[in-house]
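Appendix B: a complete holo record

For completeness, this appendix reproduces one full record from the ligand-bound portion of the collection. The bound molecule is zinc ion. The inputs are the chain sequence and the ligand SMILES; the output is the full three-dimensional arrangement of the complex, encoded as structure tokens. No fields have been trimmed.
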Amino acid sequence: MRPRIKAEHCPARFGDGWLRIGGKVFGIAADLRDPDGAVWALLELLDGTRTVDQVIADLVHRFPGRAAGEIRADIEQLSELGYVEDADEPACTALSSRQRERYERGRLLNRWVDRTPRGSSWDFQIRLSRARVVVVGLGGVGCTAALALAQSGVGRLHCVDHDVVELSNLNRQVLYGERDLGQPKAEVAVAKLRAVNSDIEVTGEPTRIEHPAALRSLAAACDVLVMSADQPAELWSWANRACARTRTAWVHGAYRGPQADMGLYRPGAGPCYECARAADQDRAALRPPVAEWRAVPMGPRVHAANAVTAGMVGNLVAHAVLSLLTGSPRLRVNCQYGFNLVTLDHNFVTVLDRSHPECRTCAVAS
Ligand SMILES: [Zn+2]
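The structure of the chain with zinc ion bound, as generated:
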């Protein structure tokens, strides 16, 4: 191995005995104490032209007080933190030259974000190419999520929706156009996604999910299940139970007007979706009764949304799926995130520290 600091993580030295590695992005960068300049010298030597032994020998020559074992441990720690790559990385044979050209920009982004030591900078892409994802619901969220996953190179993508394309869909559902009006969404979406990326396998079905068993079979056939539909009302609870049974990671995404919500779960990694719902009910029970406003007839209930809100949620969902499939970035799982598009600075994460005592899904799983 010829260790090299990743180009995106190039260090900066502040002159006060501290330096920063990892660039300027919070969550990636780290500050290191370096009173005598030895850490900076080590980082300079990690330029991909030397083996680990040569780096150690050169640094000991410049800083005789440094022990070789200590320097080796520092190099290993920098590698474990994801700041170092191998300049002698073997050529990637698991992907074709066409795939490598297609996904090169994604590889660069992943190399930047990734904090996991990998044998190859293409590891992320190889994992995606072998992954299976099911998207249930091809509305505003599902369209954007499916498109992002297809563009990102998820190897097998299965799309589920029973509806047909309507004019009122076209302000936000990016897989459809005017010529698709009246056509089955699953059929149109599959054709569009195949046209976007013919290197992956895209399938679809016009199934209406009317019972939990339908979700169990879908969950059993994939690595991550995306819930981008919200009807019937029990759908997400069904998904939670189905994925707990099959040990399948899953993601839900929805918008509440200008609030973009996304949750991601890995069964066995913490409190589940139904735990969160039960905790919500506990909190509501402690509050004074809320009088509902009934003065204005509401008419048929449809979701307020545009291409921005739907696209934001859909891309957050796709981001969560990529994280679950590859571990990059290492997003916190078994929690829900909310993003306020009115202020852009009022975001939140909802997380429980333990399973709800009355959650039957967690009780069965344990
Ligand atoms: Zn639970």
